[in-house]
From TrEMBL, chains A, B:
One of its GO terms (molecular function) is DNA-binding transcription factor activity. This is Transcription regulator. Gene3D superfamilies: 3.40.50.2300, lambda repressor-like DNA-binding domains (1.10.260.40). Residues 3-58 form the HTH lacI-type domain. CDD domains: HTH_LacI. InterPro entries: HTH_LacI (IPR000843), LacI/GalR-like_sensor (IPR046335), Lambda_DNA-bd_dom_sf (IPR010982), Peripla_BP_I (IPR028082). Coiled coil: none annotated. PANTHER family: HTH-TYPE TRANSCRIPTIONAL REGULATOR GALS, LACI-RELATED TRANSCRIPTIONAL REPRESSOR. PROSITE patterns: HTH_LACI_2.
Amino acid sequence: MKPTIKDIAAKTNLSIATVSRVLGHKQGTYSAKAEAKVLQAARELGYRKNTVAVELVKKRADVLAVIINATPTNFSTDIIDGIQERAGQLGQQVIILYAGNREAPLQHQAINTALQRNVSGILLVAIEPDATDRELLQAAQVPFCFVSLNLDDQNIKSVSSNNHDLAYQATEYLIAHGHTRIGLAGIDDYHTGRQRLAGYQAALANHQIMADPAWVQRGNYSYQAGQAALSPYRSLGVTAVLAASDMVAAGLLTAAQGQHLTLPQDLSIVSIDGTIICDITTPALTSVTQDFREIGRQGVNRVMGQAAQTIIPVTLTERASVAELDQLETK
Amino acid sequence: MKPTIKDIAAKTNLSIATVSRVLGHKQGTYSAKAEAKVLQAARELGYRKNTVAVELVKKRADVLAVIINATPTNFSTDIIDGIQERAGQLGQQVIILYAGNREAPLQHQAINTALQRNVSGILLVAIEPDATDRELLQAAQVPFCFVSLNLDDQNIKSVSSNNHDLAYQATEYLIAHGHTRIGLAGIDDYHTGRQRLAGYQAALANHQIMADPAWVQRGNYSYQAGQAALSPYRSLGVTAVLAASDMVAAGLLTAAQGQHLTLPQDLSIVSIDGTIICDITTPALTSVTQDFREIGRQGVNRVMGQAAQTIIPVTLTERASVAELDQLETK
DNA sequence: CTGAAAGCGCTAACAA
DNA sequence: TTGTTAGCGCTTTCAG
């Protein structure tokens, strides 16, 4: 039914080998006449190459698999844009596999799907691998790279912002604005969260601020986590919070407004990510902004073996969610 | 290098046929003993089935391709959740192909990629097909379905909200709240935009409101489009705007606040979509809320041939962005 | 219940 | 420059 190179061969009185050559653009191995005939026949028959067959014989698919989960955050489109851009330049197709909401079986399944198709590389976006995931990945002879997540293991490829530095910068910024009772909200208890926690603690320690452990409210980077974090802070006299993501910041902000707090006077917020969410809230959120597009691009480079373990710099974007504390009275 | 069924056959002294049968779970065609031997050998060898080979011989891939573009909106994750959920139930894998930002070549490429892999179906999420896209799709013997977009052609499968009704409801709501000078912002000039425009116009006509054409500000559903729409409205005495998406509404809202308008008193907004963006803004956005998850689920049903052309109902979610106009003075 | 053998659509030696 | 041929790894008749 669907035409194959055989049909083209029959129609042109050429061998399938010649047809394959012109369709594969093996320049110099066929005559202009053969080329013309094949191309025309292909057009007439509505021929389309069967990629599956090609992949089988070549034992290689020029495909990058991107495994991604439904993070409660919203930065993944930028990362994917970056991936797509660079992958296109390197002649790789991109297929995105979806791993649900941190659901282990779906993560395994996505990895297996990628592996079973001999993709040329796997990019794991914001995925915390469990033991099974790591085994699957290690056992296969396929390059993989964690993107927007750093496993602390120099031997495992990754591209991300420097989470320690990122939290450190944000905390320093708040301290520079007179805050000393500073919360950290919404981080998880895995690599990213722990790295950010360390940066936050380092900045506080750097200024001899004795942190109250209750200043750290864990969560999953979601809007809901931000909302939940507010009320504990109110009794702690916290004047500023570093939010683990824009979504956490937004949750914190709407919860605060629900309690009739005035921002930033009653509560300053610095957010991590710097997506468009920061512009949408009132007041706009000051953020440590990650370069997600570049993270995506470099992820491709890394998995295609063109770059070393990579840290992408962040920038601090001042908007309107931090108050200078000097002239204000701490509660 | 990578083990194949041949290796398992050699190791177990069985034929590759038998190995294939147990690995394919062709129950009743092999003995328990054979099964045990094969399974163990497979485990020991770290065998993983080569999906590409299977797809070649079966001439069929149990894969649904989802083609999606980087819409400036943000509802796609919900749709994908729904797709994934239903696809899983039907034993279909899902691969997501990314079509850039309404870029024709990338759209063709994504469609071709799907077609070249004989996927069992193609779901196009919020994709406006051009002539080439439609030809490609029609020519192939692969079921496809537009999701969150309705082409007005009863013969083409689609699942979406009723755009006419959705705009009609929103407009009626504003009229019921005393508004008569009502804008429509951010719609595109394709199917979705035109359908919503018609619904908006129908509601106005229904109340003998003579609409000023300038009340309609076109755009691409983006935050920027919302921001750009504000200033024209100020000179037109518009008291309320129906925003074509949550992002448009957010843009409108921040632009209005930038002009020191008080919302909703100075400008009421109803948004279309009802994503989490509506909760994040101040005031929260009243919206006509689409059931994106269900749209995704039904998209799978439709493409797998289990449902007819489908309209998913919407609901109006009242939040805080619409003022009752009775007791207020129109500018 | 098991094995032998024929392909799926294509590429890549190897000959001609 | 072109054709012949042998597979890629798997499923599936058809015999046994």
